[in-house]
Amino acid sequence: MIYFTFDPRPDLKEDLLKSFPNEEFVFSRTVENTDLARAEIIVTYGEDLTEAHIATAKNLQWIMVASAGIEKMPNAAIAARGIPVTNVRGIHKVPMAESVLMHILAHYHSLPQIYQYETKHEWKRNLKQRELFGSTAVILGPGAIGGEIGRLLKGFNVTTIGCNRSGRDAAYMDKMVRFDELTSVLPAADIVVSVLPDTEETKHLMTAQHFDAMKDTALFMNFGRGSLVETNVLIEALTENKIGAAVCDVFETEPLPVDSPLWDLPNMTVSPHVSSHSSRYLERSFAIFKPNLEKWRSGNHEELENFVDLTLGY
């Protein structure tokens, strides 16, 4: 039995049932132990499973996560059982890259100010507008999402510098550095974008020293996980004008507390963790799940797409 801990759109469910007429599917908005005990495969967003659920799911053989992040899952309990986990890595690259580019262009061409003037019926032309053309961007995590951001930035003649733990080459990056070399490239960066996952290695990777190394006009963007930088470090960088501005879609505490100073900082844009949202999200997720299910039923378990290394967190 294949157990969904969420209820997909009717058209997607219908397509799934037609594609796999011999499978038993259970769709639920909550995790029910009765059904869970029978489940061979669980499809989840990765935020609703506990160690107790894994213990109850005696027949569980594979977990499909309809998300890229797995940091909220009981990974130790899953690993102890040797249960393989796959995710939908790569489906976020289009909406997230578009969102990042939107915020960059809005910042460079003063769209927030234009909108403010419009609401006041004010015809003002004293706007600080710059070209993105010819700038330099450092992209932390140049995988599927970071690579797509790099591809789009290339259309604006932006020099791209990728940063990951190994320093290995990545698509659409003009140069690559390791995490421990990040400080060396930050002085050249006009834009710093992180799409890194939440792992032991990336937790608080960005420090005050990194912001000290950046241009005071630089745009910092965090679209990966809020654990990348301590909140007080980001606030200090903005209030002391170590950088020009920041746009964050993720935060250490979510929802962002109503009394957080970040809401009111003039050089800060708060985005409520929506950059990956898309009307095609589940459509793309199922496009990965369906071929994987066919491989699973054919016995080709090792050929599943997007295996997750629970020890690394991605």
Distance from N terminus to C terminus (CA atoms, Å) equals 26 Å
Number of domains: 2
In terms of quaternary structure, the protein is single chain
Neighbour order of strands in the largest sheet: 8-7-6-9-10-11-12
The 3D shape can be described as elongated
Please give the number of β-strands.
12
CATH superfamily of the largest domain: NAD(P)-binding Rossmann-like Domain
The helix count comes to 11
- What is the structural class? alpha/beta
Report Rg.
Answer: 22 Å
The helix-strand sequence is EHEHEHEHEHHEHEEHEHEHEEH
Could you describe the 3D structure shown?
With 314 residues, the protein is α/β, with parallel strands linked by helices. The chain has 2 domains: 2-90 and 279-303, 3-Layer(aba) Sandwich (Rossmann fold), CATH 3.40.50.720; 93-270, NAD(P)-binding Rossmann-like Domain (Rossmann fold). It is built from 11 helices and 12 strands. The strands form 2 sheets. A 7-stranded parallel beta sheet has the order 8-7-6-9-10-11-12, with helices on one face. A 5-stranded parallel beta sheet has the order 2-1-3-4-5, with no helix packed on it. Helix 3 links the parallel strand 3 (41-44) and strand 4 (62-65). Helix 5 packs across helix 7. It comes from Candidatus Kurthia intestinigallinarum. InterPro entries: D-isomer_DH_CS, D-isomer_DH_NAD-bd, NAD(P)-bd_dom_sf. GO terms for molecular function: NAD binding; oxidoreductase activity, acting on the CH-OH group of donors, NAD or NADP as acceptor.
